[in-house]
Amino acid sequence: MNGAEALEATATVPPEEQLGNRMGITVTEYAPDRVVGTMPVAGNRQPYGLLHGGANAVLAEQLGSIAAALHAGADRIAVGLELSCTHHRAATDGTVTGVATPLHRGGATATFEIVITDECDKRTCSARLTCVLRDKPPAN
């Protein structure tokens, strides 16, 4: 079972109710040291035509949470504790790409840096996500 299959198997809501799917996020690489995904700018803009900062935050949290869940393992879950985003430049069209890499992977918490770039490979956002790692709740 690859990372995508493992995460899908643990989901408690259908894909159409998951925010990342509604925003067009596609995860393209699942690995213990690197999770990569893309998101279209179209449909995720703020009123001035720029990629919404909240959309960057959703992409960052999606990728960082997946990375933390892969680290946590099958019997545990990763829950976001803190997210910080710095927006460096505007993206106005095309697709942005996020890359999550570990800063700290412990038994109780995991922290990831997520770098988001535009199609010209210019950094548009730097984010950091810390997740708490908890035992999976019992099934109902």
Describe it for me?
The protein is an alpha+beta fold and 140 residues long. Helix content is 23%, strand content 41%. It has a 6-stranded antiparallel β-sheet with strand order 1-2-4-5-6-3, with helices on one face. Strand 1 and strand 2 form a beta hairpin. The longest helix has 20 residues, at 53-72. The protein is globular. The protein starts with a helix and ends in a 5-residue tail after the last strand. The mean pLDDT is 92.
Neighbour order of strands in the largest sheet: 1-2-4-5-6-3
Judged by helices, strands and strand pairing, the structural class is alpha+beta
First and last CA, distance = 24 Å
Reading the helices and strands in chain order gives HHEEHEEEE
Strand content: 35-45%
**Number of beta strands:** 6
Q: Which range best describes the helical content: under 10%, 10-25%, 25-40%, 40-55%, 55-70% or over 70%?
A: 10-25%
Rg, Cα atoms, Å: 15 Å
Instruction: Give the overall form.
Output: globular
Which stretches are low in confidence, meaning pLDDT under 50 for 5 or more residues running?
Answer: none
What's the average pLDDT? 92
